[in-house]
Amino acid sequence: MVLLILFSPVILLVGIAIKLDSRGPILADTPRRVGKNNNYFYPYKFRSMIVNAYYLLKTDPKFKAAYEEQQKGGNYKIKNDPRITHVGRFIRKYSLDEIPQLLNVLKGEMSLVGPRPYYPEELEKQQKIYPQTKELVKEVLSVKPGITGFWQVSGRSEVKFDKRIQMDADYAMKQSILLDLWIIIKTPWAMISGKGAL
To answer: Tens of pLDDT along 20-78?
Structure first.
């Protein structure tokens, strides 16, 4: 609640910028993610892409190259994603699109600190590419996902899935107040620098 109050001016400014920049709602129509104990939930995020971006990636021919890029290799993110809006590129770089997930924390679906909330199909696909990660995924899903976390302050989207899931599993096994505080202290710099953001 305190963080929502502190971020309220940013929330207002980002909301206005999104409405002025492109057609559509302020919050994104985000696909479900996998939470603790394989429970699904929908994360709140500021809209950084065109409307129906998730659906259009799979169905619109003009996004075919971007979709093929997503399906290859060990990173689910797309470099220079054509669906991202002008304001979206800015808020994603500085992780401002994640601020509404404080509501997921209040609902008990997420924590301030924890593993990344993964897409169900992302986990399925990446475990086929990296079969050695199956036990690590089980460890990751034993805790609540977080708004920030170990991999988010250690390279973000520059980190491939196998290394990322290892980081998340290490966090799940070693989590403590001190580790959370260390990650929280590092988070503002990760946001300001924009390093590894897509």
So the answer is: 999 999 999 888 999 999 999 999 999 999 988 888 887 877 777 777 766 675 556 67
Number of separate domains in the chain: 1
- Answer whether residue 198 is part of any domain: no
Which residues, listed in sequence order, are joined to residue 33 by a DSSP beta bridge? Answer: 41
pTM here? Answer: 0.84
Question: What is the distance between the alpha carbons of residues 188 and 195, in angstroms, rounded to a whole number?
Answer: 12
Burial class (CB in 10 A: 0-12, 13-18, 19+), 192: exposed
Average pLDDT over residues 69-90: 78
